[in-house]
Design brief:
By secondary structure, the chain is mainly alpha-helical. The protein contains 14 helices and 8 strands. It is elongated, with a radius of gyration of 32 Å.
Length: 408
């Protein structure tokens, strides 16, 4: 019968301080510390080992301090990927809108889990996350195309990971959020492109032959987001009082496009005034649409229902306009009109610039654009407004100089 393993007699410590002893087999020091209670009421212990007694004591003292200050978390084997799944499907399931939930799910599945999902949550370090972000910037597209993710996408991924780790801290799974130590890429500001008056005229002249002429015309006068424009209904237009209400939008949900209510209070139910020329173009568009609906064998009741609750801009077969197709039409008109190539979103910038040139104040512009805060409007267009104010000041100075010079 083998001899029993000999150990040094455990060193007695005060109640709750734990015990320490040195194993004779490998000469390692072993510490045993009570850290709480099990569900059955018995004491739960945590064990520590080290070559030096002082090292084991330091580990035990740190845990005791964490317990006393309420920041202690027990070691666990849960991975980053497992935690993200739990956080998304349990914690955030009812807290996020469906579109946001799907967006988070996609980012976690396509980007976060394949790269750092295998790390134990308690062992994840800022360097792991930083390397992950750096690699994604250089060549991390999930679709296999060349190039990396944009700084904006990296910052979005970090928002998701940061939120998930904050919840882990609240549930005492981890002590610190490593994303706080990560350096995020700056969002480079894209050069704002707009059409001048001459280019707008050329564009609209060519657009008259397009089925979406009324949409482009309305955009020039309202600066609606593309989704808001394509989600606009006939009942949202008050022709008598010359205004439109922006209530809903066309957005992508998974692989499909759906009509949804606007997501922020500043965007919901905003009202934009429209002039007579817009009313005239919309009435002409409505007449053409009625002819198209009749050609599709819609009866009078169905047509009346469409003009009561239906969308203003639809396809030839009366379906939702796909944003990609809408953009292709837009780009083709720009090309044939021989004006500079811009994104459709730049028409929104064009509207903003024209509004400021016409004397609109920043607060009014904020309301028309549906920005949640005036800081957003100032960040985008404040410099333009300042330049216009300076130009006005210079002109005023020139006019007054003639009078004031005589009094000097």
């Amino acid at each position: 019968m083998a001899d029993k393993q000999k150990t040094r007699k455990p060193k007695a410590r005060a109640n709750g301080e734990g015990t320490m002893f040195q194993r004779s087999s490998d000469k390692l020091w072993v510490g045993r510390l009570p850290i709480g209670y099990k569900p059955d009421g018995s004491i739960k212990y945590r064990q520590f080992t080290g070559k030096k007694q002082s090292d084991v004591k330091a580990k035990m003292d740190q845990v005791k301090s964490d317990i006393m200050t309420g920041v202690y978390t027990e070691p666990n084997k849960i991975t980053v990927g497992e935690w993200l799944d739990t956080w998304l499907t349990v914690t955030m399931k009812t807290a996020l809108k469906n579109t946001t939930y799907l967006s988070y799910e996609t980012m976690i599945k396509k980007h976060i889990k394949p790269e750092i999902g295998g790390y134990k949550l308690t062992q994840l370090q800022a360097a792991n996350v930083q390397r992950f972000y750096n690699d994604k910037l250089e060549g991390g597209r999930a679709d296999g195309k060349k190039g990396g993710l944009s700084p904006k996408t990296i910052r979005y991924i970090n928002t998701i990971l940061h939120s998930a780790l904050e919840q882990a801290i609240k549930e005492r799974v981890i002590q610190t959020n490593v994303t706080k130590a990560v350096k995020l890429p700056k969002n480079p500001k894209k050069e704002m492109k707009t059409l001048d008056m001459n280019e707008i005229q050329k564009f609209l002249d060519r657009a008259k032959l397009s089925r979406y002429y009324a949409a482009y015309f309305l955009e020039i006068y309202t600066g609606l987001r593309r989704g808001e424009l394509l989600g606009l209904r006939w009942k949202d237009v008050d022709m008598k009082n010359k205004r439109i209400k922006v209530i809903q939008q066309l957005i992508k949900v998974g692989t499909k496009h759906e009509i949804r209510e606007l997501k922020t209070e500043s965007s919901q139910n905003r009202v934009i005034s429209i002039p007579d020329e817009v009313i005239s173009v919309l009435k002409e568009h409505k007449s053409k649409q009625e002819i198209e609906l009749k050609a599709l064998d819609r009866n009078d009741i169905q047509i009346a229902e469409h003009f009561k609750n239906g969308l203003i801009f639809i396809t030839e077969d009366a379906k939702i306009v796909q944003p990609r197709c809408f953009d292709r039409y837009f780009k083709s008109i720009l090309k044939t009109a021989k004006v500079k190539e811009i994104r459709f979103h730049d028409m929104r910038h064009t509207f903003a610039l024209i509004s400021l040139q016409a004397g609109a104040d920043i607060k009014t512009l904020q309301s028309d654009l549906g920005h949640e805060s005036i800081e957003t409007t100032l960040d985008k267009y404040g410099h333009v407004n300042d330049e216009m104010k300076k130009d006005a000041s210079d002109k005023r100075s020139q006019l007054l100089k003639v009078v004031t010079s005589k009094s000097q």
